[in-house]
Amino acid sequence: MFDAAVMGAGPAGTAAAFVLLEKGLKVLLLDKYEFPRKKACAGGITPKGYHLFPYDISPVIKRECRTIRITPPGSTPFHIQDQNILCHMTRREELDLFSLERVMGKGAHFKVIKRIHSICEKNHFVEIDAGSDLFKASYLIGADGANSIVRRFAAKGRFWQKQTAIEADVRLDRPENHPMEFDFSRLKNGYFWIFPKDDHVNIGIYSYGSRAGLQTRQLIEYAGKKLSSHRLESVRGYPICTGGVHYRPESSRILLCGDAAGFAEPLLGEGIYFAVKSGREAAFAILEAAETGPPSARRMYMKKLKEIQTDLRLYRAGAGFLYRFPRVSLKLLSFPYIHDPFARGYAQGKPLNRILTGNMFGKNNP
Ligand SMILES: Cc1cc2nc3c(=O)[nH]c(=O)nc-3n(C[C@H](O)[C@H](O)[C@H](O)COP(=O)(O)OP(=O)(O)OC[C@H]3O[C@@H](n4cnc5c(N)ncnc54)[C@H](O)[C@@H]3O)c2cc1C
Description:
By secondary structure, the chain is an alpha/beta fold. The chain is 34% helix and 26% strand. The radius of gyration is 20 Å and the shape is globular. Bound molecules: flavin-adenine dinucleotide.
């Protein structure tokens, strides 16, 4: 019997496991794959996410970006800059292996399971039937991503939505010649990106709205035009799960976090920060509930999710405005007195709600 089982060893799962292990809990970490494994993700980590990792992830950072180029539809590109880092670039297979090694170093029991047959909440524990293995744990954290299996067993109503993104790597002689870029000029309700890494750039398309119909062909054409290359490697598409503003834990022993709970933001599709943050909060809720009993894990988690859900509401409003009025909103963003406070706040690692209530209105909110 484990104190906690964590399904999924991505950023949400390893963040949750690390907190529990630090407090001496016996933790089982389950994943569908052996690591390292590929994960569709551009690997951009904003400073607020970077500083949330409880260990130094600089060994897996490939580039640090202080400039972001934005291309609006129908007008000239502009740049957002800060003296501090605006985004850290990693490769997800390396980051996730690095994190898994950190939690295994703390004593996590890691097991690869191919299929979940059932997840059953009993009075005093949760039972996970994985065919040849039957696991029991006091709590289960569902951190198994956008297509979560745990969510299927633990959530009755549909609260989440799926956005779509496709990405690929393009090897270039001088990737550093390309700034980090968001290009809104070639796609309705979405954007193309270029994220520079050490020996390649990662390119991709994000579409806001589930009926995206994104195609690899669009990415090949984009690479041809922007990078003069058609040699795309590791082309991968995957959903990004949003809608976590509506997530309410329904069970006292099963908590969802990261994409499983719809905790990616819909504006640009950032999810790593929210995954780490919510994974940690789920673990803290379990630790605090150890004194008072399981119903309070759910209550405590709901309280702890307030900041995440406030931020996600703001991103949702921002996405609604941006994709409805892209020209107007990007025109506004192009003015330095609008984008500078955002850049400063981002570079200082602040979540959106604190940027808006602090910097934007001139308050000194650390
Ligand atoms: C193309 C693309 C680009 C993106 N780029 C960025 C970016 O640059 N920056 C950013 O912040 N976000 C980005 N995102 C979003 C980000 O990848 C996710 O929000 C983030 O990975 C969520 O973390 P997670 O731990 O919740 O889930 P995941 O990272 O998806 O991890 C889930 C884990 O669960 C495992 N799993 C899945 N199913 C099962 C199962 N049935 N049983 C056991 N284990 C299972 C998986 O193998 C995986 O290890 C991108 C997403 C996509 C699709």
